[in-house]
Write a structure and sequence with these properties.
Blueprint: E1 2-6, H1 10-22, E2 25-29, E3 41-44, H2 46-54, H3 58-64, E4 66-74, E5 80-94, H4 95-103, E6 111-112, E7 117-122, E8 127-131, E9 136-139, E10 141-144, H5 151-156, E11 163-175, E12 185-191, E13 194-202, E14 205-213, H6 225-232, H7 238-245, E15 251-257, E16 270-272, H8 275-278, H9 287-304, H10 308-336, H11 342-354, H12 357-368
Parallel strand pairs: 1-2, 1-10, 2-6, 4-12, 10-16
Antiparallel strand pairs: 3-5, 4-5, 7-8, 8-9, 11-14, 11-15, 12-13, 13-14
Helix pairs in contact: 1-4, 1-9, 6-7, 9-10
């Protein structure tokens, strides 16, 4: 079977590696002139790292990722509210580095860069992919990994649309010396209707993000963006201000997801992975993790079942419940963490500080559980 993959981000590249391990022939199309993603940092769970090992890139991942041992929620003065140890170790890695790790094993004849997709037409016995350069390619099936704004999804599954969650994120990477307690940890500052995350990237580099409620499609003034963001934290501990000041490139993104619903993840010969079909907000650091899980699950289903519809249906049934749980939890976590009045902050922090660790561990374990994959486990 010959498989086309549209999109060379984390989802598309993970799919390529998984298909390769499962013994399938594929060709990947990426619209950019080189593999790479716009962004700053991302979290990877221990369970997802185990999948990266199965895909043959675990060692390369460890060479550039930073282990995280704790997730700490603090108030605006850095006073601890909740300290949750990871089961095992989590990781933070630069987004561009993860793409590099995933793309390096691919051979040049397995992908096409600068591939501007003209059309993807599903026929009875094949899928035809036309590029804007005039070339035409035929595949037995196509994996759409072209992101939350997927052009393919808009054509074949127009009922599935992205949802603006009412929140906007600013993020960047700062080179700055911080106290030792920031090392190998992920901190989130909650309070005064503002939220900031600070994550160790190693060698005095820190990935940070700021989340707040904002109107969709807002714009920043490049000349004043640092001043504007620092002003949000003028009543906080000094570290957030220092971190923003030490950042050269600040990115802004409206936070959108795809709300879980009763819709298919595939047609007869086109199937979707990653943000193109199950995008979630970044509040749980699960976007890349779930893209990699979907890629591995799809490859396992294709290897186990000879019939495309059986493989696609099983893939969705195995993944849908977990995606729904993570999507809903992430959405509500993002809203729950922002309280608009000071007394609400105090109530929230009191409740969080009283939460037993076993409750948090239970939620975490459900997020990283991979037992369902035993049904479609495969080896190259």
């Amino acid at each position: 079977m010959n498989i086309g993959i549209i999109g060379g981000g984390v989802a598309g590249l993970s799919t390529a590696l998984a298909l390769q391990k499962a013994g399938f022939q594929f060709h990947l199309f990426e619209q950019s002139p080189a593999f790479g993603e716009v962004g700053a940092g991302m979290g990877i769970s221990t369970s997802t790292f185990n999948l990266l090992q199965k895909l043959g890139v675990g060692n390369a991942f460890l060479e550039t990722a930073v282990p995280l041992k704790r997730f700490v929620i603090v108030n605006h003065r850095l006073k601890k509210v909740l300290n949750v140890p990871f089961d095992g170790i989590g990781y933070c890695i630069r987004r561009a580095k993860l793409v590099e790790v995933l793309s390096k094993p691919l051979q040049p004849d397995q992908y096409t860069l600068n591939a501007q997709i003209g059309s993807v037409d599903e026929r009875e016995d094949h899928v035809e992919v036309k590029l804007k350069d005039g070339s035409t390619h035929q595949f037995d099936m196509v994996v759409a990994a072209d992101g939350i704004h997927s052009c393919i999804r808009k054509k074949v599954l127009p009922q599935v649309v992205a949802r603006y969650t009412g929140q906007t994120m600013w993020r960047g990477i700062a080179k700055i010396g911080l106290p030792d307690y920031f090392q190998n940890r992920m901190h989130e500052l909650w309070g005064m209707n503002r939220r900031m995350g600070i994550v160790d990237l190693g060698n005095d580099n820190y990935f940070w993000y700021i989340v707040r409620f904002a109107s969709e499609n807002g714009k920043d003034d490049a000349a004043t963006i640092q001043h504007d963001l620092k002003k949000l934290f003028d009543k906080h501990h000094v570290h957030p201000i220092e971190i923003v000041h030490a950042t050269d490139n600040i990115l802004r993104t409206d936070l959108k997801d795809i709300a879980p619903g009763n819709f298919p993840w595939h047609t007869n010969r086109i199937v979707f992975v990653g943000d193109s079909i199950h995008a979630c907000t970044p509040h749980l650091s699960q976007g890349a993790c779930q893209a990699i899980e979907s890629a591995y699950t799809l490859a396992g289903c294709l290897k186990k079942y000879g019939n495309l519809q059986e493989a696609f249906t099983t893939y969705q049934s195995l993944r849908q419940e977990k995606i729904k749980f993570i999507n809903n939890l992430s959405y509500h976590f993002g809203r729950f963490s922002h309280q608009r009045k000071g007394w609400q902050d105090k109530v929230l922090h009191t409740v969080l500080s009283a939460l037993p660790h076993f409750y948090m561990r239970k939620k975490f374990k459900k997020t990283v559980d991979l037992n369902y994959l035993k049904e479609v486990e495969f080896q190259d």
